[in-house]
Amino acid sequence: MNAPCTFSIKNGGISQYFDVSYLDIVRNGDTSVLKQNQKTPFNQIIKKYEPTPNFLNDVNRIKFKHDLHRQIMSKRGKNLKELGTLSNNQKKSCKKVCENIINTVIFSRERNSDYKTGQYVVFVTLTLPSKQQHSDKQIKRLQTRYIENLQKTYGVKYYVWKAEAQKNGNIHFHLLLDKWIHHTVHRKLWNKQLDKLGYLDSFQSKHGHRNPNTTDVKSLKKDDKGRKIKNPTSYIVKYMTKFEFGKRPILGKLWGCSDEAKQLDYPKYQEGQPLFDHVVHLINSKKLKQVLKEDFFSFFSGRSYEVISTKYKKLWSDIKDFYKLQNGNIEPRTISQKEFIRLKNYIPEQTPTIPKIEILQQPTFEQVKLNYGNPAFWTNNLK
DNA sequence: TGATCTTTGCTCCAATTTGC
DNA sequence: GCAAATTGGAGCAAAGATCA
């Protein structure tokens, strides 16, 4: 197969797969079977839905109809996820964005730099000051405006948000931002948005002032119980993707992030790249546990960052540079990669020989001293 | 004049299958 | 797990308008 073996380095492990973007595969997918393309009574109801003043009642009605819809679809052999929950794909995307934002900000920070001026990871929670009177969609529009303010006026570049329901049924939002902004500013901006739908009026009539405490801002140093957070990345990922028992479903989009955050990726090492063999050595060292082994995909679970930072300094430095590069902190370097030919019309063999995922022989440390041939080749000076 | 709001056009999400 | 494919529609970004 002319697709390079690739390692993707994540905080909690390393995935191994073949980059099939190098192949031009003929696919015969059938889109008529897609769940979202099926004409069902529930889909028609959702299209015509107009929110009433008692939104929480609407949610219960829609949830009841969705449950019926799930039963009908289940009889057709289609299993739908519960209304208002993240699918596995969504969890995966959300996790990727959170991990990469935190890594980008942490690795890009200069020592002793002022956290108030540079990038700094903060976690913000936005709530409503009184009972929710409007649809989730309307409240989410306020949140969009609030984030827009943060981007345009306060220079927020990377953000990710997640909508959840509180026990009282009100929607609230968790946001991960890359910028320190004073908590009074957050409160001022969010309350200003809430004022548009009259939430400050109803709060004032009850409490006599128009400055409800609707925001909670914290850094990622201590958790809700005041305990020190050892691993901010896994803490945030758990927080953002957790399943909420006994809460009403959120209607519509459940999470979102900035375009810049969407572009962030994990560091990857392909066959032909100088540090590829270092990753192979790490895999062979058995410091990570292989938890999945498919024909074309494997996953090695464990504290990959801890192992790499202590035992594989060169790789660690390259990962940090990768994030700095993504963040625009450093200039791109010359890419030294073996060429793979992207095939135009890939036709599988009659009796395909499935390549086994075999880890290369355990190299000695001498083998890690790689010989890359003529140095001129890697600096593009070869004529 | 800078900040914020509105409009508009278009990007991309969610869903799932398929092949590697 | 990744990439590509397809669809309707949600929601985003950009640009211009308006506000203070």
Q: How would you characterize this protein structure?
A:
It comes from Tenacibaculum jejuense. This is Replication-associated protein ORF2/G2P domain-containing protein. Residues 205-225 are annotated as: Disordered. The protein is α+β, with helices and mostly antiparallel strands and 383 residues long. The chain folds into 3 domains: 5-22 and 267-378, no CATH class; 39-75; 88-253, Alpha-Beta Plaits, CATH 3.30.70. Helices cover 38% and strands 15% of the residues. It is built from 13 helices and 10 strands. The protein has helices at residues 41-48, 55-75, 88-108, 136-154, 183-196, 199-207, 232-241, 259-263, 276-284, 304-311, 313-326, 365-368, 375-378; strands at residues 5-10, 13-18, 119-126, 159-165, 171-179, 215-219, 255-257, 268-270, 289-293, 297-301. The strands form 2 sheets. The chain has a 5-stranded antiparallel sheet with strand order 8-1-2-10-9, covered by helices on one side. The chain has a 5-stranded antiparallel sheet with strand order 6-3-5-4-7, with helices on both faces. α3 packs antiparallel against α7 (232-241) and α10 (304-311) crosses α11. Residues 27-34 and 342-383 have low confidence and may be disordered. The protein binds a DNA duplex (20 and 20 nucleotides) through residues 1, 3, 6, 8, 15-21, 23, 25-31, 33-37, 47, 78, 87, 89-90, 92-93, 137, 140-141, 144-145, 148-149, 152-153, 252-253, 256, 259, 262, 292, 294-299, 346, 348, 354-355.
